[in-house]
Amino acid sequence: MVSEIDPETVKQQLEADNPETESTGERIQIIDIRSQAQFEQGHLPEAINIPLDKLPRRIEEIEWSQHIVVACPIGQSSIQAARLIQSYENVPHDATIQSMAGGYDAWEYELVQES
Questions:
Q1: Which domains does the chain have, with CATH numbers?
Q2: What is the predicted pLDDT for the residue at 63?
Q3: Are 18 and 27 in contact (CB under 8 A)?
Q4: Nearest residue to 103 (alpha-carbon basis) of 55, 43, 57, 49
Q5: What is the pTM of this model?
């Protein structure tokens, strides 16, 4: 079963992954399943964009050794995407795959803008 992670915890983990701060030892990877246009308007730090409709073809781009958080506009389609990722046969059984609760609507922090 896919669990959810709140945006505040995602932010804390991203900051802990920052080389200038203390590392937790568990690196987080953000998979943004919104469209490329939405991604370019603003996204979570260090997120990679794999739109939901392209996820089955691009699933190999995910680094399985990491904690994976899937983000979408409101936190609904990210649950489905996280389930899809979790069902992929090459996912290690110890991988942590979560959906960001509330999606981008719940993210109250600065977004990275594409230039």
A1: 3-16+25-106 (3.40.250.10)
A2: 79
A3: no
A4: 43
A5: 0.89
